[in-house]
Amino acid sequence: MTSISWRRAVRPPSVTRVTGRRASRSRGQAIVELALILPIFLILIASALDLGRLFYSQISVNDAAREAALEASRNPTSFIPNTACTSANKESNRVMCRATNESSGSFVTIAPADVSMACSTNPCPAAPVMGQTVSVTVVGHFRLITPLLAVFFGGQNTTFATTASAQLLATPPAVAVPGPVAAFTVSPDSGLTPLVVSFSDASTGTGLSYGWAFGDGTTFAGQNPPSKTYSASGIFTVTLTVSNTGGTSVATQTVTVSDPAPAPPVASFNFSPPSGPTPLAVTFNDTSTGTPTTWAWDFGDGTVESVKNPPVHTYTSPGTKNVTLTVTNSGGSSSITQQVQANTVCPSPISSFTVSPMTGVKNITQFDTTNNSINMSTVGCNNIWSWNFGDGTGISSSQSPANHIYTKRGDYTIELTASNLGGTSTSSRTVTVTN
Q1: Domain boundaries along the sequence of the chain
Q2: Measured between alpha carbons, how far is 417 from 395 in angstroms, rounded to an integer?
């Protein structure tokens, strides 16, 4: 069996002491080197910052000159030399205000004496013409922080001068434009609903703008509107307004739209009573169809009426009256005639007659009747006499019939009925017939 023994390695003391001295010298050397380099580094950083400030200041002066030149091109007389911009003179000293305001807040300083302006025409014109120019020179003052850069710029204080030019804004002379004359055509300008209408512009003038109003609340902006449909009846005023730089002109026309005509009406009426003695009061009622709008009544006795249902009409003279009703609407007219019979006032009849002889022989004796009825002579009363001889025979419409012969014996009652429009009356007589 092999045994292994371990021994601790011990570094010689001389080696440890040499290393410690070397490390101490290295730290000290580094501190010295840093102390030498740090000021140089800080100077370089400050110089870099100065260069940035210097560059920004140059841009600020350039911007101030450019903005002032632009303002001068618009307002060449708004500049007061060597005068600071204030709230009191900001309108009359606009060029100075623009230059100094543009540099406000930068590292450069611009005083009123540092801004100058000159026009190609001296003095600067209040009303420029094409081709005239203006130049604005701005001088800015800048101070360096580091003396290192001052060596290159001849000192810590330096200046920047920039000149910017612009063409004066000239308003071209106004060219007179003739005013327009509005005009248009309409086709068709009337008709039945729904009516499709076309409009065509006929206005004269250049550079025109158009505005249409069609009279029904609708509008159109353009030269020639599309066709328009009027779906309601009425009279519509169409207006065209045209404009250009020379003025405005207006033209109007009317479009008349009507509803389609309805079908003609059909006349009809009823009345009551249809006949009667005078004075005869008759009531008439319209029963026409087809929505008539006017009514014309002719009552056949020289009187007329023009309402739908006339008041009660009274006939005072007898006769047959032809009553005509004519009804009309926008589609046409129609008439109808009916008759009213107005009769004479008829007195009530009284039947009366005589028979001779009162007794006779069958197949031989002739019985003669004589009509004596009264109130049966008025013309127009429809007078009728009806005879009944009692043996099943009779006769009507005869005042006094021919003699009557009975063929059988017995007692017979002869009756006479007198009637007219005033009433009816019956009388009788009895005769005796023997063998």
Answers
A1: 28-167, 184-258, 269-343, 353-434
A2: 11
Q: What is the CATH number of domain 269-343?
A: 2.60.40.10
Domains 269-343 and 353-434 share a fold: yes
What is the pLDDT, as a whole number, of residue 56? 78
Residue among 100, 101, 96 nearest 117 (CA): 96
Confidence (pTM): 0.36
184-258 CATH: 2.60.40.10
Query: How many helices (DSSP H) and strands (DSSP E) are in the chain?
Result: 3, 26
d(CA 414, CA 234): 82
Sequence-ordered strand ranges (E) for 247-345? 247-258, 269-272, 275-277, 280-286, 294-298, 304-305, 313-315, 319-329, 332-343
* CATH classification (class only), 353-434: mainly beta
207: enclosing H helix or E strand: none
52 φ, ψ to 5°? Answer: -65, -45
Average confidence score pLDDT of the chain? 88
Mean pLDDT of 155-177: 83
pLDDT tens per residue, range 75-86: 999 999 999 999
Give the DSSP H/E element, type plus range, for residue 418.
strand 410-420
- Of the chain, the percentage scoring pLDDT greater than 70 comes to 90
Give per-residue pLDDT as tens, 90-114.
999 999 999 888 878 778 889 999 9
Pairwise CA distance, residues 84 & 86, whole Å? 6
